[in-house]
Amino acid sequence: MEVIKSTEEIKSLNFSSPFALVPTMGNLHEGHLSLVKYGIENYSEVIASIYINPLQFGKNEDFSTYPKTISQDIQLLETLGCNYLFIPEKNFAENLDIIEPKFSDVLCGLSRPSHFHGVLTIINKFLRIIKPNACLFGLKDYQQQLIIKEFVKRKKIKTDIVSLPIVREKSGLAMSSRNNYLSDEDKKFCGKIYSCLKNLAASLKKKPLGVLKIEAINFLQHAGFEIDYLEIVDANNLSSVTKKTNKILIAVAAIYKKVRLIDNIVVSL
Ligand code: AMP
Questions:
Q1: 32 labelled catalytic
Q2: Do 131 and 32 sit in the same domain of this protein?
Q3: Ligand 1 center to 17 CA (angstroms)
Q4: Which residues pair with 232 in a beta bridge?
Q5: Do 18 and 142 have their domain in common?
Q6: Are 148 and 256 within one domain?
Q7: Nearest to residue 139, comparing CAs of 256, 16, 35, 5?
Q8: 138 C-alpha vs ligand 1 centroid, how far in Å?
Q9: What are the tens digits of pLDDT across the range 125-160?
């Protein structure tokens, strides 16, 4: 695997088409690796990137303490057979025009108001300089992939945005770099978030959505989680469910021992 640390160099490379980009912030786990594996199986070449994007962190968030395991990450990518790893320079996020996302005033965008602006600004830069045939994302960050899909379509960027399934711990907890802040016991306990989403999904036709939402919030609060949000929305545009809705998103952000955990389930109607 070739490790590239300069934007000029990545711009000058000739990748074999079709090639896929997998953007990450590192501290790789099976969730990230599932994207790289998918890339290797379905494209001629795969470029992973590791960049802890300062623009997507709020003032009181964990930018400076975000887990960094670069040599371990390189080894994991190499073992999988990833072709390139791009580690941009520190000034990669400087002097960029901030891009205004759609669908960013709900769910995670409410408590992290500039988060998706930061994500989109950097992803746009990646797409413009690398020009991949596809860019692979995890459905764990449902709102993120929806925002990027809408942007790429609106701007007619010729990259397929491919969204791939959530990889989970045995307990059901969605894998995340932030799970590193939790003990094994905590991770097992936090499986309750996914159980709660599954129960809610199974009850969608049995009770009004407002009732299901309150029941789920109560369940998680009693279990010991602080709830940032739990919403049941139209998965196509994150707005209220209507008679026309054909796909429902049940999304949650719950805080356990100061760790903010997100998860979701999509149900086709
Ligand atoms: P991050 O390093 O958190 O920015 O994540 C990089 C990519 O990996 C994003 O597209 C995430 O949605 C994806 N990802 C993170 N966790 C998981 C997971 N548990 N399952 C699937 N994809 C994931």
A1: yes
A2: yes
A3: 24
A4: 250
A5: yes
A6: no
A7: 35
A8: 5
A9: 999 999 999 999 999 999 999 999 999 999 999 999
**15 and 99 inside one domain:** yes
Name the region of 55 (left: φ>0; alpha: ψ -120 to 50; beta: rest): alpha
pLDDT in tens, 7-52: 999 999 999 999 999 999 999 999 999 999 999 999 999 999 999 9
- Parallel, antiparallel, or unpaired for β 45-50 and 84-86? parallel
Structural domain includes residue 172: no
From the candidates 29, 32, 115, 117, which is the catalytic residue? 32
Domain final residue, candidates 164, 189, 208: 164
- The domain in which residue 58 lies consists of 2-164
Q: Ligand 1: distance of its center to the CA of 30 in Å?
A: 9
Buried b (16+ CB within 10 A) or exposed e, 129-167: ebebbbbbbbbbbbbbbbbbbbbbeeeebebebbbbebb
Residue 140 Cβ < 6 Å to ligand 1: yes
Same domain? For 159 and 182 the reply is: no
